[in-house]
Amino acid sequence: MKAVSTGIRSPYLLLSVTALFWSLNWVIGKAVVGTISPLALTFIRWVIAVTAMLPFAWPLIRANWPAIRRHRKDIALLGFWGTGLHNAFAYVGLHYTTATNGVILNSSIPVLIILTGWILYRDTITRVQALGVAISMTGVLAVLTGGDPSVLATLTLNRGDLIVLAGMVFWAVYTVLLRLKPAELPGLALLACCGAVGVVLLAPLAAAELLFMDGKVDFTPASVAAMLYVGTFPSFIGYIFWNRAVAEVGSNVAGIFIHLMPGFGCLLAWMFLDERIRAFHFAGIALILAGVWLTARGRRAIPVPDSE
Fold first, then answer.
1. Largest Cα–Cα distance in the chain?
2. DSSP states of 222-281
3. Who contacts 145 (Cβ-Cβ below 8 Å, separation ≥6)?
4. Is the distance from CB of 92 to CB of 220 less than 8 angstroms?
5. Measuring CA to CA, which residue among 95, 85, 101 is closest to residue 42?
6. 3-state class of 186 per DSSP?
7. pLDDT at 54 (0 to 100)
8. From CA 41, how far away is CA 208, in angstroms rounded?
9. Tens-digit pLDDT profile for residues 264-273
């Protein structure tokens, strides 16, 4: 993306920073429950994101308008799966399920990406990558269960779990479909177009929530700061980093970096919620990092469009 340079050369650092942005997004999302209803928050998030993008993206959109028109179906498909609805499922689902269940389902994304890539494109995974996925998932479970595997036996799927899982499927499909990105279209132009698709999809849903489902938006300094954050870092900067990294390392490798989120979540909870970090947290984070490293080391070169 010529207009907005990440300033970071390593795709693995891009993925790690994105995981940090998205981890804090979950913390903030839980903090504003009861202050901003989920569909309204998702709509406001993408309005802010698109507004932040436009000063940089508009010249690229104008210059590449013929390509955008030519590939409008692919762009609409990416916008449908990747912006708006994915976030809406997550925010709505967290009203009906526990945070533990939600994070476990979020950590299923790498597996869902691999499965989706196999279904759509017959993508393969190396043995080293498979080992990395297994080790990283072990670390995730160590963090989420407090080092006690018997906790998993008490987990049950409710409607909130199913809603969150639907959002994870949307994100997995979006990540795999990023290979549809037209090679001649700058990444920021694509992201702005996808964000606009998300805004159009979310507008009637948010309006219905506010008018008929007791939705609310309370404007306080804290809620405004939360809206600005989720609209700027997870949605604008985070998506730029994610899309560029996926173009460089492929969807399977990118997906495993989602496993960094439970580790970041523990640290953020300690910093902002005064929660204790225990031995199993450190063990889980170490396993997650080892799995991410193995997956990155074991990847095959995948021909995908350049994000530039």
1. 57
2. HHHHHHHHHHHIIIIIHHHHHHHHHHHH-HHHHHHGGGHHHHHHHHHHHHHH-PPP-HHH
3. 151, 152
4. no
5. 85
6. coil
7. 93
8. 13
9. 877 776 777 6
What are the φ/ψ torsions at residue 4 (nearest 5 degrees)? -130, 100
- pTM tops 0.85, yes or no: no
Two tokens at 190? Answer: 């694509």
Domain membership of residue 306 (yes or no) is no
In a domain, 269, yes or no: no
Contact assessment for residue 7 and residue 248, using Cβ atoms and an 8 Å cutoff: no
Domain that holds residue 17: 11-124+158-250
CB atoms within 10 A of CB 170: 22
Higher-pLDDT residue of 133 and 193 is: 193
- Helix, coil or strand: residue 227: helix
Q: Is residue 195 part of a domain?
A: yes
> What DSSP letter does each residue of 186-217 carry, written as one string?
-HHHHHHHHHHHHHHHHHHHHHHHHHHS---B
How far is 84 from 170, CA to CA, in rounded Å? Answer: 10
- Residue 211 makes CB contacts below 8 A (sequence gap 6+) with none
The torsion angles phi and psi of 250, rounded to 5 degrees, stand at 90, 160
Q: Is residue 277 part of a domain?
A: no
Tens-digit pLDDT profile for residues 175-216: 899 888 888 888 889 989 999 999 999 999 999 999 999 888
Sign of CA dihedral 72, 75, 76, 77: positive
- Residue 50, classed as helix, strand or coil, is helix
**Percentage of the chain with pLDDT > 70?**
85
Amino acid letter at 220? T
Total structural domains within the chain: 1
Handedness of CA 123, 12, 28, 227 (dihedral sign): negative
User: What does the pLDDT read at residue 302?
Assistant: 43
Higher pLDDT, 122 or 55: 55
* 50 band by pLDDT with thresholds 50, 70 and 90: very high
